[in-house]
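Supplementary Methods S3. Input chains for the assembly prediction are listed below.
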Amino acid sequence: MSYIGSFALMLALGLSAYSFLAGFLALFGKDAASARLGETARRAGIATFAAVLLAGIVLVLAAFHDDFSIAYIRQHSNRDLSMAYKFAVLWSGQEGSLLFWSLLLAGYGFVLRLRYKTDQRLFAYASVIIASVQVFFLLILNFAALPFSITRGALPADGNGLNPLLQYPEMVIHPPMLYLGYVGFTVPFAFALGALIMKYPGEKWIHITRRWTMVTWCFLTIGVFLGAHWAYAVLGWGGYWGWDPVENASLMPWLTGTAFLHSVMMQEKRGMLKVWNMSLIFATFLLSMLGTFLTRSGVISSVHAFAQSSIGTWFLVFIVLTLAVCSFFLVANRSHLKSEHKLESLVSRESSFLFNNLLLLTVCFTILWGTFFPILSEFVQGHKVTVGPPFFNRVAVPVALLLLLLTAVGPLLAWRKTSVESLKRNFLFPAIGSVAVGGMMILFGVRPWEDPSYFYATMAAVLSALVIFTVISEFLRGGRVIAGKTQQNLVSAMIQLCHRNTRRYGGYIVHFGVALVVIGILGTPFNKEVETEMAFGDKINIGPYTLVCQSYTQDDNPNYGNEWAIINVFRGGKQITTMYPERRFYKASGQPQTIPRIYPSFREDLFLVTDVYLVYEGKNETTGRPIIKAHLNPLVPWIWIGLIIMVFGTIVALVPNAAVVQVAVPVPTRTPAHAGAGD
Amino acid sequence: MRERVTEMKFWNLDLALKGRGGSGPQRLKPHLTRRTCGAAKAAPFQRKTVRRALQTLILTAAVFLFMGAGDDSARFKDLGHRMMCACGCSQILLECNHVGCTYSDKMRDQLQAALDKGNNDDLVLQGFVQEYGPTVIAAPSATGFNRVAWIMPFAVLALGIAFAVHIVRSWKNRPEPALADGIIIPHGSELDEFRQKARKETDL
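Predicted structure tokens for the full assembly:
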């Protein structure tokens, strides 16, 4: 089986190399022979997908059939692993995850090459660039990180098993989502670089890649949040974000990708920020690669990182080369990227986008800086320092709050210029509402002056409320106009409004989701925790809840042995649920793992929902009693609801508009005399 | 921690005095100051308002930056969140819970013992640095080269703002693009008429 896989990868490398070289040569010619050569390159690109898919299928089948003659399967699987986790073996280790990356890239390339008729020339450029990235990954898979290498010596009876941390249902979908996001940014990157190299006229490349970018961004968003949820539900420390370098690596391209999604609107609508947008999409792609480099090079220590290996050098060389190519074309073709309009007022949608980008990039830089500072410190001072959560919280949170303010304010500003009168009209209701929220928090006992974290929580609540009220007021105002004209009820009118401009109103829904996520995060300073050993009938009081240990026991199955406690949860004297915090001991890997249990109190407190979070910390060996740690995490479920709304908003934004509104605008004449400096 | 609070209170008092109309003799005659300025001089009044707003802002920032917990359990929580577990799990000391960790329990006991001895925060942290190395502190200190870690993000933000302002200025100074033949941009009352019409039709 390993021979088929290895052959498929070698074939894929040959095909992608042909696709790159033939495609590259075809770009220079305009005759029929060049067109034919280009067509063969396109078909080779399509065939690459088939070959990489074959390699992927072989690896999954090897996992299903417990083929421990393949070293990768022996290291990451075992006989008693369930089928879903055997499928997840594909991305559970270094070599497999690179194969998975390559497969997704080939899949994106496959779709792109099938849709080439949209604009053959631009697609040909994009196809060559994607083929070059594909060649890079296939070179690694064939020469540095071989997924089909053979097990040396005698075949073991069983494999080492999958890392226990990965044996959780979300791990079957979190990495694919994250990778779809990382890899997906290769497509807008390829179009952007292609458009820059060929000096593509107009902004059509942005229209072509808009959906690609949004879908990719959506996948990355889901991936990042699923990662946070996995950390929350599996690691058992009661939190969801630890500013781990690998978490940071996933957040950085998300931030630049978000900045790109906003600023690209300025290019579409006003022909501005062309250099900036190019730089942003280049940065997003490079940061995706940097994330991969970080996890695989061993330059930083992280619980997520793969084992240290030589492929870090490959990535470093690739990143430097890509940076050099992008920088060269940005400088060489800068005249092509001149702005067509000017900014007329600081109080305008354009300037809000400008500052939104600035803040997003500041957060991104802070994360990048914090991630690499230990290396810099070692170089300068001779010793490493830790840059952990306190640093990121103190630096990134204030900037993020400013960003939240812009999220509220930006959509209410008009393009070009906004009058004071319109500002007053648009902001009155949201501002009163958000101040009222702040007042209510103080009324209910939050004292922002007592602790910086309470201050930030109050500010975050006020600004989130501002975002929510802004979005609601926008929907209500637009809905009322349509309802007045069409005699529909308000809800139908708002749906129609949404359908008329899906991108705008989908975006508002995403903002609404972001505000909910922030509300979920701002509960952190109010977390509570208690840790104690529990005998039968023992109680823990935490917040309004009483936890009673009904029993504790143990069990065994072929994959793992486990012990768990049975805890009844009471509130106001009434039992509301029973929870089973658990600890497992995986037999194949010989590793223990805690399985926390979470109860979100939606039935008891709809808006101020709180997670009751129980962890089986271990067992007192003398008494045999379990040690239970109970956390009360207010508002956390809003984070996951916020994610669902963000995804829904993105889907709405992807739906085509119901009707195209045509507006006559002055057409600028492009003459060198009137063109200004670049942006 | 106690020293910090005292310093903040002193600052608070100072600003409060200034807020009532300046320091020294000026403060004794607020009505004279007002009469001298006159209602017509709006600019100094605005400057004063801005100054007061700035003072309030600085005071608020100071309050939230320097206020801290006083009692031992809060100090334990605070210090425990300023250190990493030394086992290599990359988790904050009080958040490390991985099964079989041989460091976190011991470190927590050491922290509690240091607090019971009455050591101040700096002494407690120094003790941990001596035993576990500088990486035990969860964030760079504000001394020496480590200051760069804290300054750089804000410096980049400041540079970014300066760059954005520069861009806006250059855009503002840019000449209007030429229009295609036959297109006239409305101005004055004509433009107001269009705006009125658009507002009426969209109510936006």
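Residues 146-202 of chain B form one domain. Chain B touches chain A through 58 residues (CB under 8 Å).
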